[in-house]
Every structure is written in structure tokens, then in C-alpha cells.
Amino acid sequence: MAEKISAVKGMNDILPPESARWEWLEGIVREQMARHAYRNIRTPILEHTALFVRGIGEVTDIVEKEMYSFEDRLNGEHLTLRPENTASVVRAVTEHSFLYDGPKRLWYTGPMFRHERPQRGRYRQFHQIGAEALGFAGPDVDAELILLAASLWKALGLTDVRLEINSLGQPAERAAHRAELIAHFEQHADKLDEDGKRRLHSNPLRILDTKNPAMKEVVEAAPKLLDFLGEASLAHFDGLRAILDANGIAYTINPRLVRGLDYYNLSVFEFVTDRLGAQGTVCAGGRYDDLIAQIGGKPAPAVGWAMGVERVLALLEEQGAAFPAPAADVFAVVPDAAAMPVVLRTLTQLRAQGVQVQMHAAGPDGQGSFKSQFKRADASGARFALIFGADELARGEVTVKSLRDGTGAQIARPLDDVAAWAPSLQSGASQD
């Protein structure tokens, strides 16, 4: 036998019935995005490495440690599997002059890639759903995006999440804070870990995001960026808070919330949970007003968020959510393979009417006994069995047998008028 080939570690297959959970979540997302007038955008998985170096930041963990980058052996281009999608969306909008006729609200879904140590909620191929509003400058759209996320949690039945917000101000304000931050950490250099020492002069703001408990005290004592904000930045932050307050959205101001990407300014936010341990951030984002210009476009403000699909599904599972079970409406029981021409004609008509149909097909040992087919029908989760027996076919009928209401009731239906009775087989319908 040939050696078995397995999936790359940290890149997972999603099989039924688990895939039905993903489809259910994606369906709710599509509905909510449409209600908020966000339109779908799809970008390539592979981009030029320079996009992420310039957009995310050269001294971020993502660029320094986590990207899957390589040189194209055909033309020498430096390419990277996307580690996040905001930079790709901005690149697409810029390349196609998509903001020429006004601001845009966009959303996306798809796989991202980071070379990390695989663990629950953190995989090398992971999936995100994101929403981006480009060309809008006010805190009202920051708030709209947070309200969009909150509406998703409600539609999904997700309850164990809390909102944390902060403001990163503008570049000049961050520069003043940065100088004070470096001075503070230099005075306590003996308490910094290797990551902290490495970031001290290149990206000291990221030290605030450390997960090292030994550094908690020195980080808590560090200067707070909120104290360096000017009038305009504070007004933006206050505007965001006023809208959240008016809508009854609870939040905590977290002055240590800085996010892991360099392109953020002003509002940043995270929806977090305590149920998933270290991987407790399920949705995060903020404003990135300078990114479009950094990538070569005409300067324009923007704000957005990304949600981790695996983490949201894991949190729903932790909460004991009742996920939908994938099942056909009907299972076709076919005692004699000779009846297949009539069976498939009928099933095709049912499917055209919107009925979900699973057919028993003949195996290498023949069609299978009546008993074994009914076992399969019951195991399939279908609400009804369609019995194409010889007596039924001789009368030009099929027998519809109830499988889920405990009665086992049966009713004959004519084969020459499928459209008349097909609706009674669909989920939520009842038999006459």
C-alpha cells in the first residue's frame, strides 16, 4: 500500500455534519450583512509580500514570524499567503479605484494563513469573516460596525462575549506617548522578557499587549495613551461611546488594548470571552485611516473588523448551542432496482419543487432489503420515507411514511401530480 498522506498540521478538513454548522453560521452572516447594506468582496489568497510588510507593519509578529512567504520559482516574485484580509481589501479597492464614486461597505469570508503552533482556536489555516467600511470618517460608522457585530451575536445566540474599546489617537499623539513609554520601560528593563526587550525601540506599544504574567505590574504602571489624546481624538472616542450608550451596548475601556497590527488609529475594539482560554478574542478591529495611502491609494478613512469563525463556533459549542442537524426532507426506499427510471423521474420533480431528497442506491450486493433500507432512512434524519414498492407503482402511486412524529402514518400520493403534494414534504410543513 502507498504511504497515507495527511493534511498539513494545523490545516483542518471540515466534514459533515460539522460543515453544516459552518453553512448555518455563514447563512446568518449573509443575512445580517445584507440588512446592514454591506456587499461581498472576494480577494485572492495569494498576494505580493510587500502588501503585508507595508500594510501590517514590518516589526509585527505576523510579518516577522508567522507569514507563509516564498519566492515564485517561475518569475522570482515574493509572494505570501494572506495572513489577514484588510490589507487585501484595501489593495483591491485602491487598484480598481473603487472609492471613485463614493464610500463603500464591504464584507468577506475565507481562509487566512499564519505559521503558528496549532491549538484550539489557533490554526495555521483559519477562517475569518470581516466587515470593512471605506471612505467614512465619523465615529458613527465605528459604532455601526460594532452594532453589526452585536446583531450577529444575537442572531447566533452568542451570549458569553464582552466588548472592550480604546482609542489609539493619531500619529503625533502616539509619538509623544511612545517616547514616554520607551522611557518607562527603559527604567524597568530588567523586568522585560526577550520579546519586550526586542520591541522596546522598534514597537514599544506592542509590549502593552504582552501575555507574560511576570510583566503585568510594569505594564500596568506604564503611561496610558488616552492621557496623550488631543481634543479631536477625544471627541471621536466620546462620539463612539455616546452611540454605544444610546443603543444599550455595554463596554469596558481597556487602555492596554492596542491590537497587533500597525495600521490602526483612533477607535480599536475587541469582543472577548473567558470560555476559550488564551484564544478569547472572537472579533476585533478598529479604524485604519492611513492604510489606503500607505498602499498607494488616494488618502481616505476606513474602519473594519474580523471575526474568527473557528473561535465563534467553539464558543457556541461551549455554550451548548443547538446546532442544526443536516437532514433531507425525504428518503427514497426502492425495493427493486427495475423501478429506478420512475423513481428518479419522481425525485427529480420533487427536487425541482425544493424538496431535499436522499435516494437509496444499489450497492455491490444488490438493492438491499426493505428492512435495511428503512434503517438507513431512519438514520438519515429524514422526516419522511417515500416507498416505491411494486404495489404502489402498479397503482401509479408512492407511499409517504412519517418517520419523526412517532405515528408512522402513511399516505398514498399520485405520481402524475408531484407538484401538488411536494410542498407538504418540506421542513415545517405538515401532512394532510
From TrEMBL:
The scientific name of the source species is: Pseudacidovorax intermedius
- Family affiliation: Belongs to the class-II aminoacyl-tRNA synthetase family.
| EC numbers, comma separated | 6.1.1.21
Looking up Pfam families in the UniProt record yields: HGTP_anticodon, tRNA-synt_His
Q: Which UniProt keywords apply?
A: Aminoacyl-tRNA synthetase, ATP-binding, Cytoplasm, Ligase, Nucleotide-binding, Protein biosynthesis
Matches recorded under PANTHER family: HISTIDINE--TRNA LIGASE, MITOCHONDRIAL-RELATED, HISTIDYL-TRNA SYNTHETASE
The record places domain Aminoacyl-transfer RNA synthetases class-II family profile at 25-335
Q: So which domain of life are we looking at?
A: Bacteria
Tell me which Gene Ontology terms the entry assigns under biological process. histidyl-tRNA aminoacylation
Q: Which GO terms describe its cellular component?
A: cytoplasm
Q: Where in the cell is it found?
A: Cytoplasm
**Coarse class of the protein's main subcellular location:** cytoplasm
User: What is the name of the protein in this document?
Assistant: Histidine--tRNA ligase
Assembly description = Homodimer.
Where, in this chain's numbering, is L-histidine bound?
E84, N85, T86, R114, Q128, E132, R259, Y263, Y264
Gene for this protein?
hisS
Give the molecular function GO annotations.
ATP binding; histidine-tRNA ligase activity
User: What reaction does this catalyse?
Assistant: tRNA(His) + L-histidine + ATP = L-histidyl-tRNA(His) + AMP + diphosphate + H(+)
